[in-house]
């Protein structure tokens, strides 16, 4: 009897499905690619043909230029590639992010890509899909990682802002997904004041707005005076927190929105005064609860703390193994 998922071939540079003659999230150009989401460690330019959600294709176009071989696949729609049925299911990671369900010869394999279980006003929420093999990330695959409630972290940010009206709060947030989520979460809490953004965020913020995500009034930080930005929030890429660009801001309180802010040393290394533990990945409990809910017969673990999650599976009689994929990065989470 063939092993589960024997028709799936993990390689260091991606997952190949021979029966569909296609790759999932390949890290180098291929003739046919299925892409889970728009982060650069999953979506690369140069493929001959790409199947992804329309939002992911738009993100790829914004980052890599026109995608002439792009095929948009809506959530829940199915397509046939060779002898494989392919579906895209919400992953809850960033705008357009998807799990890819592959069905072949009576088996169901889900490549989850990156995912989170928390609600996020900027993207569709994760949908659990029962399957035989679940390929999961393990970015925060250690028991120490338990993310706090989102509103508590946003309350910390607003409290710092209101307590220091002569200063500003400079939030480092990754350009795709995290920056827009920080802004949308603040809006959901009733923060209606203009939010200033670094120029590197403008294109993707505009893309989110074009896809129906309300970010409220955004202003370019480079067009504003120091006095105008007092008492306001400025959002910028993490790389801008301590560079020359930030010196023109009014005595900024430096914050960073990332799941890695759980690790105190990471905050110290980045000179972060206000660490905000806000992740677009599942924490340890969400990873393990997802496996319990989905109840796969096998779990394949990739990019992250694979050993701990594999051990957790094995102690519960769930067959598990780590995949040796290269080229993945948390992109500042």
Structure summarized in a few sentences:
The protein is an alpha/beta fold and 333 residues long.
Mean pLDDT: 95
- Please state the structural category: alpha/beta
Q: What is the domain tally?
A: 2
Number of helices: 8
Order of helices and strands: EEEEEHEEEEEEHEHEHEHEEHEHEHE
Distance between the ends: 41 Å
Query: Which class of the largest domain in CATH terms?
Result: Alpha Beta
CATH topology group of the largest domain: Metallo-beta-lactamase, Chain A
Number of strand segments:
19
Shape estimate: globular
Low-confidence stretches: none
What does the main sheet amount to? 7 strands, mixed
Named at the architecture level, the CATH assignment of the largest domain is 4-Layer Sandwich
CATH superfamily of the largest domain: Ribonuclease Z/Hydroxyacylglutathione hydrolase-like
Share of helix, binned: 10-25%
